[in-house]
Amino acid sequence: MRTRGAVLERMGLPRPYGDSRPLRIAEVELDDPGPGELLVRMVAAGLCHSDLSSINGDRPRAMPLLLGHEASGVVQAVGPHVSRFAPGDHVVLVFAPSCGHCLPCAEGRPALCEPAAVAAGQGSLITGAKRIREGGQVIDHHIGVSAFAEHAVVAEASCVRIDPSIPLDRAALLGCAVLTGVGAVINTGALKAGQSCAIVGLGGVGLAALLGAVAAGARQVIAVDISDQKLQVARDLGATHTVNSRDPDALAQLRQISGGGVDLAVELAGVVPALEFAYEAARRGGTVVTAGLPNPDARMSLAPVTLTAGEKSLKGSYMGSCVPMRDIPRFAEMMMAGKLPIEKLVTHELTLDQINEGFERLADGSAIRQLIRF
Ligand SMILES: NC(=O)c1ccc[n+]([C@@H]2O[C@H](COP(=O)([O-])OP(=O)(O)OC[C@H]3O[C@@H](n4cnc5c(N)ncnc54)[C@H](O)[C@@H]3O)[C@@H](O)[C@H]2O)c1
Ligand SMILES: [Zn+2]
Ligand SMILES: [Zn+2]
Fold first, then answer.
1. Degrees, nearest 5: CA angle 162-166-170
2. Quick check: CB of 53 below 6 Å from ligand 1?
3. By the 8 A CB rule, do 91 and 85 touch?
4. Secondary structure letter of residue 185 according to DSSP
5. Residue 49, domain member (yes or no)
6. Number of structural domains in the chain
7. Which domain holds residue 299?
8. What are the 10-residue block averages of pLDDT along the chain, 374 residues in total?
9. How far is the CA of 71 from the centre of ligand 2 (A)?
10. What cofactors does this protein use (predicted)?
C-alpha cells in the first residue's frame, strides 16, 4: 500500500528547521506485513529529542530514514504466524523490541535485547525485513517503529496491546517519554517512598520522570533545568523545589535543600554538564541514573575517588530499564487513575505537514511534548 511519511535524508541541516526542512513528507510504498509483522494505522506520534538528535547529527544513523519512535495506533492487518494480535487491537509502539531468547532477554532486561540492537543499527525490523520504499529506493526503519507516517509495518515484538478504553492519543507518550522517564526513576533508580530525588533536565522525558517520582512518594522532588519556564512547569507538576543549574551556586542550593545531596539524581537532559551536575547532586551513598543520550564523542569527567569513598552508584538507563509488556499496562492504568497526568506534558498538537516547525520548537526549548495527530 501507499502511505505518507516524514523522511530524513541528510543530518545537520541548519536551523531554523522551518526554513531548511530536514524532513520531507513523501508518498512511500509499504510492503504487506511479513511473518511476525503487523500493519498499524498511526493515531498519534510524539516528537522526542532522540529524533532531533538524528536530525542534528548528535545521534547519527544511516539515511534515508523514516523517522519517529513514540506512537500509538490500531492494528489494520497481521502477517503470517501472528498469534498475539488481531485487526482492531489498540497498540503502543515500543522502540526496543525484544527477541525473548538472547542473554539480556533471558535476564529480564528486554531493553538491551541484542538482535534488536543489531536491527536498529541496520535500519531494519527485528524480523530482519525492510518494508518501506520510495521509487525503488529502500528507506530505513527508525528503531523498528518509523512513527511519523500514517501507516507502518512493524514487528509484533515492537507492539504492546492496551485496553481500548485508554485514549490512544495520550497513550502515544507511554512508548517513550513515560517508559524512559518513569522507568528511570522507579526501575533503574528504584526510588523508595520517603527518599529524596533530583530530576536534571525537564523536557518531555524529564517531566515524565518527575511525575514518576511524585507518584512513587519521594519526600523531595528537586527539579533542575537551565530554563526558568521549565522550572515553573515542574512546580505545577509537583516538584517540591527547583534549581536553575545556570546559577553559579546551583549545586550549593541543591545541597542545602537536600541536606547534603539527594538519594537519587536522574539526568534526562542529554548533555554532559547535566550529567556532571546530577553526579554531584547525589549524596554519599546515593545513586545517579543517566538516561540522556549525548553525542557519541562526548565524555564526562568525574573524580573516581568520590565514586569509591562516597560509594556512589552510576547507572545507565535505556528505555527506563522497562519490561514494556509489564510496564505499559501499569503506567496506562496509573495515567487513567490520575496518578501519572501525562496529558499535561502535551503542549502542541500538529499535522504531519507541520513536523519541521515542531522540531524547531523542540530545539529552541519552547515546547515540551508535541503530538502529531493522523
Ligand atoms: N535512555 C533512553 O531510552 C531515552 C529515550 C528517550 C529519550 N532519551 C534522551 O533523553 C534526553 C531528553 O529527551 P527530551 O525529549 O525530554 O528532550 P527535551 O529537549 O525536551 O528536553 C531536554 C531538557 O534538558 C534541559 N537542559 C539542557 N541543558 C541542561 C543542563 N546543562 N542542565 C539541566 N538541564 C538542561 C533543556 O532545557 C530541556 O528542558 C535526550 O538526550 C534524549 O535523546 C533517552
Ligand atoms: Zn524518545
Ligand atoms: Zn533478545
1. 100
2. yes
3. yes
4. I
5. yes
6. 2
7. 181-318
8. 98 98 98 98 98 95 96 98 97 98 98 98 98 97 98 98 96 98 98 98 98 98 98 98 98 98 98 98 98 96 95 98 98 98 98 98 98 98
9. 10
10. Zn(2+)
